[in-house]
Amino acid sequence: MQRVSTTVVALIGPDASRRALEVGRASNVRAVVPEDRQPLDRAEAAWADAATTSLTYVVHDADPLRAVVTDWAALYDGAGQRGALETAIADAVARWRRRTIELPDYYLVLDAESLPATIRHWYLGVLRAAAPARVVPVPGTPAAVERALTRLPAGRWWPDLPDLLDGIDRVVPDAVTLETSASPS
User: Fold this and answer.
1) What number of other Cβ atoms are within 10 A of residue 100's Cβ?
2) Closest to 93 (Cα-Cα) out of 16, 160, 47
3) 179 belongs to a structural domain
4) Could you list the pLDDT tens digit for every one of the 185 residues in the chain?
5) Does the residue 39 lie in any domain?
6) Is the pTM of this model over 0.85?
7) What is the CATH number of the domain that holds 108?
8) Do residues 112 and 118 lie in contact, with contact meaning Cβ atoms separated by under 8 Å?
9) CB 183 within 8 Å of CB 57
10) Which domain range does residue 50 map to?
């Protein structure tokens, strides 16, 4: 885990890029929306930006676990293969070990109910179970995102990425809703 002088927040969900840019207009927020590339390349670009920022918040849409999430959801939705998930995990862990990516301090999950069930379970089930205060569901409006930034709760930090992802291929998704998302999966 690398420390930087800013709070790094990844926005997840519909219109995450646009929301990041809108919230980035605030004087204490830097929006980072890397150009379209591979998910881990985008995450590296976002992390590099965060590491050089001294503003209070860096808000981005480049989840360093995007490929893992996509392949995990595909596996359990019947459209993916275990090998693709294993490759995504290995790639993410390798970059984490090289210190070119890091998990954000917080994930703000925008309009969580609109996400596909398996993706929703990843964020509100799997990730939230690992560090409950670090995954916050919020309405997807700019005002709600700005309000959430000022009210981020304190809580335990993420486990090291290899520990977080160890055995993830055996974590079967449940149907998570906002009402039940506070309980560990």
Assistant:
1) 17
2) 160
3) no
4) 567 889 999 999 989 999 999 999 999 999 999 987 899 999 999 999 999 999 999 999 999 999 999 999 999 999 998 899 999 999 999 999 999 999 999 999 999 999 999 999 999 999 999 999 999 999 999 999 999 999 999 999 999 999 999 999 999 887 544 544 444 44
5) yes
6) yes
7) 3.40.50
8) no
9) no
10) 7-170
